[in-house]
Structure formats: C-alpha cells, structure tokens
Amino acid sequence: MTGFESFQFLRPGWLVLIIPGCWLVFRLHQRWKERTDWSGVVEPHLLELLLVETRGIRRTWIPWMLSLMLFLVLTAMAGPVLEKRSVPVLKKNLAKVLVLDVSHSMLAEDLRPNRIERAKFKLRDLLNRIDEGETALIAYAGDAHVISPLTSDTHTITTLLPGLEPDIMPHRGSRPDRAMELAVKLLDGHSANPGEVIWLTDGIPENMIPTVAQLLGRHRLSVIGVGTVKGAPIPGKNSGFLKNSKGGIVMSRLDTSHLQVLAQQKGGTFQILRNDDQDLEIVLNQPILMNEYFEDETEKQGDIWREEGPWLLLIMLPLAALMFRRGLIFGFLLISLHLPGFVISESAYAFEWKDL
C-alpha cells in the first residue's frame, strides 16, 4: 500500500504535546526577555543609545525556530508512515527433545516433595515458555520410550506429565544411552539441521559419557540437574530405603561434574534445578543454531510500515546546529529552571537587576 491515502501515525499520542510544548517555548522566550530587559534599570533616552537595534530583530525568530524544532521532533516520534512493505514470515525450525529420567533414584526426597515431581514441575514451566518450533518428550529408566513425538502442541505434552512415575516403567535401571538414541532418531527425521536435547536427570555413569556424546552427534545437549550434592536415600518399594548388598542405605547424590562435562562437550549448558526460572532462562537463551529459522512459504507474508520520521530529524539537524552555535539552547535550559514548578525558586537569590 503506497500513496498519501495511506498516511497515518503509528504513535499519535506524541502529537498532543505539540501545543503545550510550543506554549512552553514562548513562555521561556518571554522569561528570557524579562531577564534581559534593561528598561527598568536604564533611563529610556539612554537605553536607545546603548542597545543595538538588530538584537530586537534577532530575538523575534528564536521562539519560532524552537517551536519548529519541537514540532519536527514530536512529529517524528509520532511515527508518520506512508508505505507498507511485505516481509517474509520466519518460523523457528529448531526441534527440541525433552528427556526425563524416571529411574528409581528420582524418588529421592532431597528436593520436596521428591526429585521426579520437581522435574515434572520444571518441565511444565519449560513447555509453557516454548512458543515456536516442535517439541518431543522421552522418558527412560531401564529402557526408553517416546511419550510424545515432535509436535508444536506443547499443551498436549503437559497433560502427559502427571502419569510419569518410576513404577510405570517396565524395566528398572538407568539407560540414558537408549533415550539419546530415540532422541537422535526424532531429530534426524525432522530436519538435516542440528536439534537440541534438554535432559533432566540426577546423574550419569562415568563410563557412559563417551557413548552418549557420540550418539548425540551434531545435536546440542543441555542438562538440568535434579537433586542436591548432599543427596538423600532412595525410598524402597514397600517401606524404608533401598539398601546395597552389604545392608547399607544407598545414598543418591546429584552428579554435577560428569553432567557438566557432557553438556560442555555437546555445546550446551548445565544448570542445577532452581526454585525460580533462572535455569530455564539460561537453557532457552543460548546461541542460535545453524538454520534455526526458515522462511515459511505456506504462510502469508507479514506487513510492516516504513516510518518517515527520521527524515524529519535530518531536517532539524541544521536548525539545531544553528541554535547550538549561538548558545541559545543552553540559555533556554538555564531560564527554564526559573519557571514556576521547578525546584530552584527565585527566593534563592539575594536580588535581581530590577531590584537595584
């Protein structure tokens, strides 16, 4: 859309300041004239000989010049537009796979009510923040299962979270490598571009780090550690706590060192689960991956207005340079301090010229 019939202002609220702004300019000029008026100090017949006639003429254009500058600035701020341009719609092409550890150690209660519940709370917050691209969910213990394939409907994934418990997993244990295999299959089937895996877990065996890193290939991995370094015992199936072969209680501690090393190797970040959303802010605001955005040809092109305000500011520059050179801008600023309502009052001075 072009032509003067499409002329409008994007922010017309700025225009209401033109009239009070011009009034302020003329009020400042009047105040300046009062400050430089010698008629109350020097006799009229002597004043005609002392004053240069051109000064009176030169003063007349000052308020008009300032008013014009103010008009140009406020009009530019109002966002005048004449032309609307079509731009392509970019959509996020990045696919994310959320991997949740549902092994028995996630029942430890060093986080309240326990690790698995806190992890699901965090996943719910994470899904609420994802508004572009496609997301999938994988849960694993002794084996891995795709809970939801890649979809743009994150609400559906959220409704599946409450049912994820260690007791529903057919095989006990912890096999994150199998979860990563499924994640890579989903990402490779979605696009040839790198994807991202966000993994919520309390640890990984050291000997499994090279395997997981190799499986992920070109895809980025970020890890949110669930639990504490101090750890907690793992609840037993019936009552009490899980014990080892020697009868000692098994303590499950968050494995920060191995998880951090793995995340760094795969270009992601490692964050310990927090009560606030700072961990999610870091995980979701990482550098953009290659070809993360693409031009969607199926969508209608979007329209944006091209603002003409900057041209008005260019017109104002020589006027501002003239006023600045003559020192008028600083003079008006100083005079404005003596207007009613400003902090500095006239009573702060001992006397003025007209008091002599």
Verbal overview:
With 356 residues, the chain is α/β, with parallel strands linked by helices. It folds into 2 domains: 4-85 and 305-355, no CATH class; 91-295, Rossmann fold, CATH 3.40.50.410. Helices cover 39% and strands 18% of the residues. It is built from 11 helices and 13 strands. The chain has helices at residues 18-35, 44-50, 53-77, 115-129, 154-160, 176-190, 209-216, 256-265, 278-284, 309-325, 328-336, and strands at residues 8-9, 80-87, 90-92, 95-101, 134-140, 144-151, 196-201, 220-225, 232-233, 251-252, 270-272, 293-295, 302-307. The strands form 4 sheets. The chain has a 6-stranded mixed sheet with strand order 6-5-4-7-8-11, with helices on both faces. The chain has a 3-stranded antiparallel sheet with strand order 1-2-13. A two-stranded antiparallel ribbon has the order 3-12. Helix 1 (18-35) crosses helix 11 and helix 3 (53-77) runs antiparallel to helix 10 (309-325).
Counting H and I runs of at least 4 residues, what is the number of helices?
11
The second-level CATH architecture of the largest domain is: 3-Layer(aba) Sandwich
Q: Total domains, how many?
A: 2
* Average pLDDT taken over every residue: 80
- The secondary-structure class comes to alpha/beta
Q: Report the major sheet.
A: 6 strands, mixed
Number of strands: 13
Shape: elongated
Radius of gyration over all CA atoms, rounded: 35 Å
Helix fraction, binned, reads: 25-40%
Question: How much beta, percentage-wise?
Answer: 15-25%
* SSE topology string: EHHHEEEHEEHHEHEEEHEHEEHH
Reading off the top of the CATH hierarchy, the class of the largest domain is best stated as Alpha Beta
Widest sheet: strand order?
6-5-4-7-8-11
